Amino acid sequence: MATSASLARGTRDFYGSEFIRRSYIIEVIEGAFKRFGFSAIQTPSFENLDTLMGKYGDEGDRLIFKILKSGDYLSKVSDQDRAELSSAAMTPQISDKALRYDLTVPFARFVVQHQNELPLPFKRYQIQPVWRADRPQKGRFREFYQCDADVVGAMSLWQEIDLIQLYDTVFSSLGLVGDNYPTLRMNHRKILAGIAECFGIEDQLIPFTIALDKLDKIGSEGVLKELKELGFNDLVLAKVDEFLKVESSLNEQLNFLDELFSQSQQGKSGVDEIRFLLEQLDEVNLESIRLKLDLTLARGLNYYTGVIFEVSPPDGVQIGSIGGGGRYDNLTSQFGGQPLGGVGISFGLDRIYLVLEALDLFPENVSDRLDVFIVNYDDPTAKQLLPFIQKLRKTGLSVEMYPLATKIQKQFKYLDKRKAELVLFPKSELLIEGKIEAKNLSSGKVGIFSLSEVDQIKEALS
User: pTM of the predicted model, to two decimals?
Assistant: First the structure.
């Protein structure tokens, strides 16, 4: 019985212009990574399960795709265990590997394993797919690409300044300027910890920040409702409500924090670092991003310890964040290494594609369109044209000759789907003279060109 041709939910095929456009985005991002001094690495698509588990928080752990052990993976599980164990308890017995959830945790594992070979600080970039067992929806997939740049082995905040400029460089190169600029929202985990300390909920920091991070999705009433359901008392809820009503202007936020953190050293430390970043960035002409301090930004990943970033798309584009990251100073220590300072950012390739598509920002030449299509009249003519086709391709043109000497209507029906800028007609009476007829499909112009003058063919494309 034949299997139906279908894709797994949350995955996609790429071909034609869509593939070319994705490659264009990757090329822009990778070019910026190199100019900022980052070196490329790649890691396997799957890791040991214990490498990934426990690094992302409970919600993240649930979204990790586990891989069943090879062979009869249930053979060592007793009937009693099968009946009594929960899925969480059963998982380590039947699975010991998992698809990577992000690129940061595998990078920390990589650094620990190769730390004696790496120059510190080590600047790496990585462009590879990741997988999450999430509910698919617009802009959210189960398999998607991340484009990461990280620095490990340096505690300096100048790295954050460099990464903000990296965001600006990439988005500017992609045309996200003027009215189409993204917003880079920033916060600090020490600020969040300081708020929790001042509210008397230090021991509930994680559930507090997880609820807070949902403000954009469920609103302030939704956040307060979730906190109440988690058991936060009315006094805390009143403080959170007051906090959520703080004006969004930078001065109002900093004044609120200065007053709130009069007795919180870690809160003050976070504010000082944010102020340092903003002061230094005053010296930089950022072309494509607007900076915003967002005190509700938490980013749910447990490994963040300092400044955190999230990039919102331009106004009018309804999609989630197109980038994010932050500082993680203790991640390498979870793999037995020294607690090397680390900070990194990520570009969401798939969502950036949707933004550029929505704003019509892809350059016209970024497509799967052929430069030259050659009509096939017969085999002897095709053979005669081989040296000419070779010369055209050596100039950098994309050239295709129809593989069959068949009716012109059939060849043009194929051309309607394939698309081309220039069509060549190797008519026998012209070939005798060493010439060929060409038609520019965009302008409609027709000309006769010498087979020996390849540069004239290139000019006919413009």
Answer: 0.87
